[in-house]
Amino acid sequence: MGGRRLARGYGGKPVKIGITCYPTYGGSGAVATELGIALAARGHEVHFITYQQPFRLPAFLPRIYFHEVEVMRYPLFEYPPYDLALAVRMHEVVLRHHLDVLHVHYAIPHATSAWIAREMLRESGSDIRVITTLHGTDITLVGQDPSFYAITKFSIERSDLLTAVSQYLRHETITAFGCTGCTVEVIPNFIDPAVYDRARYQTAPRPFPGDPARPVFIHISNFRGVKRVKDVVRIFARVRQELASSLVLVGDGPDRDDAEREARVLGVEQDVSFLGKIEAVAPLLAAADIFLLPSETESFGLSALEALASGVPVIASRVGGLPEVVRDGETGLLFPVGDVEAMAGAAVALLRDRARWAAMSAAGAADARARFALDAIVPQYEALYARP
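Above: the chain's sequence. Below: its structure in token form.
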């Protein structure tokens, strides 16, 4: 990691930023997209470079541009080389639009592609700073796989600056990779308080069918194994034995079929709604009572933060970065992974004690705004871009 120079964008002047992320449903893509939107609103020029338009990016916003990465289809390639196509596209966009910085989210392959693009630029006498933001499974799962360990370590060490979304992830990165000669700075995920505001949606029609007096449980994820979505259904099934309620699951992914099957097996499918991928989740959260996140691990837990900001107490696993987001006993309740009975019991007790629920709801919204508001976090990224 070296103090490589940016050509422009200091002293409070607008910066031209290239952002690469996974554009599909998930926390890293959501954060990267929301960051780009916030930066553009603050006067910077943002160029998204990825294989499709990010799911949280509207069709048009001022000072935001989208550059699609096209991968050549050729019979020789059983697996088309997206990482190389991405590097070429980064190189092209930097030169054409005179970018100041490439900010890549998720180490593999984005940090690798950015390094290749920078080396190509140097061959032509140009340069670019590379900032890599680590989000979680790029370090805790994918990066530590023997097939990717060496290239992950190489790529993060060749980044000019590294950030992680939690203290937990920073520790994991340094422990797993050593990260020779580099510093990992923690910049947490954030929310827009104006969007995740329960009061804003109270006069809107209720988004869920059924009895409005019933409490609503909600879960939002990409339905991968690490999210333990079947545990979500199991927790709800135990609650349903004692308390009439409904469960709403937002998102999609490989474990959705198993979760739907679990709801049928446990006899609660009539009270469970699978809504699929929904971009605007704030109105749904504002109508919910408890957010369930019994994950195997979470490096941060963006969906939990969005729930807290919406005044929804969170019941989750005590793993990873979640204790940094959820104040156990104050804004939510944390339990060991897989302790379905304890989570269900806590949910029933909380819903039956409406005064405690109201206090936890208010505390969650206040804490989210105090520690994770957009206006407090985005300037930390601006400071990185302006660093000499």
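Confidence is low (pLDDT under 50) at residues 1-10.
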